[in-house]
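Session log. Operator J.P. requested a structure for one protein chain; no other inputs attached. Running the standard single-chain path with token output.
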Amino acid sequence: MRDDADFPAVPSAGRSSGPSDPPSPGDPARPPRATATDLRLVPAALAAWGSAWWLTATEPGAALAGTVVGTALMALLGALLLVDRRPRRGPATRVPALGPPKPRTPEPRTPGRRWLAQCALIVACVLAVLVAGTVHLVARDRGGAADLAAQGATVEVVGRIVGEPVTVTNPWSGAADSVRTTLALDALEGRGAAAPAGGRIDVLAGLAWGDLAYGSEVRASGRLLPADPGDKTVATLVAAGPPTVTGAPVPVLGVVNTLRADLLTASDGLPADARALLPGVAVGDTSRIDDELDEALKATGLTHVTAVSGGHFAIVVATVTALCATACAPRQVRVVVTGVVMAGFVLLVHPDPSVLRAATMGAVGLVGIGLGRPSRALPALAAVVVVLLVLDPWLARSYGFVLSSVATAALVLGTQPVARRLTPWIGKVPAFALAVPLTAQLACAPVLVLLDPSVATYAVPANLVAAPALVPATVLGVLATLVAPWFPGAGVVLAWPAGLASWWIAAVARFFADLPGARLPWPGGAGGAAALAVLTVGGLVLVWRWRWVAGLVGVRVPWSRGSGWPHTWRTAVRANVREAFVARRRRATLRLLVAWAVLAALAAGCLVYAWPRWIARAGRDVPADWAVVACDVGQGDGLVVRTGVGRGLMVDVGPAGDAAGTCLDELGIERLDLLVLTHFHADHVGGLDAVLDGRQVARALVTGLGDPADQARWVLDDLSDRGVPVEVAGAGTGGVLGDVSWEVLQAGQGKVAPSTQRGRPALAEADGGANDASIALLVTTPQLTLVALGDLEDGGQEALDRTLRSRAGGAEVDVVKVAHHGSRVQSIGLAATLSPTVAIVSSGENTYGHPTDTALDLYESVGAAVLRTDRCGTFALVVRDRALAVAGCEDG
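Structure written below.
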């Protein structure tokens, strides 16, 4: 699509972006000037982004003060610009009486004035964000939800569903038994009185909430909890039960809900992957996508096909524009039709802020690529960023907004140059097809490592192979959605080819995700993102200046730039392959040696920085004389103590998956002398099958509280089927395994009577309390002492502290496995009593904020070195020369 009138030009900084001025008569013709990219709005957009980031985490009073300062600064800059515009009077000159007056040459703009104008533009954008954001903050906090949440009050709310219900897996039970959604408050009552309602709240509730129609008005009750700083929502409601529907969605949303539901019906007969993925590709409904397919999409960089992105809007707009052009519709008709279709698609996928953002970014990216005018697209993108931040300053903290902005900027700036560079080698169409995913992935990779400290190795080829199926899957899926309510048979007919395209995307994701090295571990945090960005830029420079690099290594390139494959190579295919490799070489010079040294130093630096993370996950950095290993099992626990060659004692087995079993395989553990399952939450027992497969377990020790009941029943059945003897732990129970001794310090605070029954013990029943029923285990080896605290809460930790302080000989240990993945519930007294040298925090990606700064600071304050599996991966503790050291972790 190329329609210059639909995308007005923006003049570039210091130089006109349009065609050069026509030469005056008699002057030689001048070549046209190259169009410069207008960057003037970019600093303003970045400044607006930073101010929105600060604003959303501050108080309304501070935001108001910032607005006042911004207003004063804007007034000062405006006054300076007005003063600079006053004409300067020079000496009087006589005007000739005869002849036409000479044209007046405009006074050139001075650099100082340009800088003043640029500063005024930046301050104006920041001020707009501050003013609008302050209004948002006042409106957000005018209600009483924040105050009631600070008190943990039980409330009754009335509001409308404004967020797509998402099923959440409970980490304690391992079951998908809760739903998270968002509610726009209309009424609020708490502490026996009505409170002013305003803003939005997150809702965490039972599965009954998943059946609510988008836009429905509901009444519900539950407990309010405070929101995290910087969240757009005012609080989180933990609902006490199912809601009462008090109002239907508005008619438009009612039609949309019907369309989406009928798409699910039309796709019911498709194969599993097609049935799961088609609603996500067409309308962003991910309710049928299972965890395995979701992980495959993440590992291959294909999550954008289900999260409605700018690409979906670009496909829809391009299709509509092509149809209008085929029908020879006038320009005005095309504009109106395209606008109506985009508005309808926004409603179809639900008008969430992320969808509105995607629509805007998709329009900018499509116009920028179609026109091939980055000089116009980039200032438009910057303006869109500023406008969106004014409308919703909380977008500044959204990773989706960051990725959309970065990807759009990369597409409008990088697609054309990359495609031009690739065209001589692979042809115009393949070059453009490869340039789009390549530029987007390279730009987004440093941001993605902040979310997941890994690099999707095959993201570019996976997107390239899957891309042809995205267009038919989206277009036919939307058509099936529109047709299904009125002509169900036609909806099914359209859903099948759309499902076939969706199946292809899922197959590509699974294929590339199963390849070796599909996700390359990379250091997380700002340091990892910066390192990847530097490496990416360095690689691009080397590839872009490959002729210069070839000259440095002593190879003369016998063909000119832009000519593609050399003539000798083409001839070699038909005649003699050896001709293709004939090249003249020159002797190495000092410059060559210096260049190679710099390149080698950069490569070595990146390798040294990333290598510990690469090998930590696989456990290859574990030395042969390890004493204790903390297995990286994600959000869960998995601790191994060495009891002999090929033997160990294991405390918990992590969540479902192969992580714990793989860790034992890497350690060469063929027999577990003792397997301790501190309690029955899924993040501590889910990986049991992988641990039991391929190795012998002499004995299992479990807590006496069967909570959750289903999980406890499954664990006991599995152990019984494998012939593993099971005992219920009791305080004082212990034993010796080679030169390692163990003792149960606490198991349920005395609430559960221990049993010595073997085979299948009887467990006490309770609804809740599993955390404080965790087994607290003391392990003593010839080199060190260790205490594993399970998931003990306040009561359990305080009881254990009293028990340890009453023991003769002191209670200090060398190593502590911190309770509950480093949650904020930590006993100051217990930490001081144990006074460990090393504190191990076993955690992974989670939505609970584990580990918390409170827990980390507490154990650091008692002199412990805190080591975290979410940063280190799998690591080992060793004792050499009577000193405790860590192997496999440099960034605890």
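Operator note: Confidence is low (pLDDT under 50) at residues 1-34, 573-588, 612-620, 750-758.
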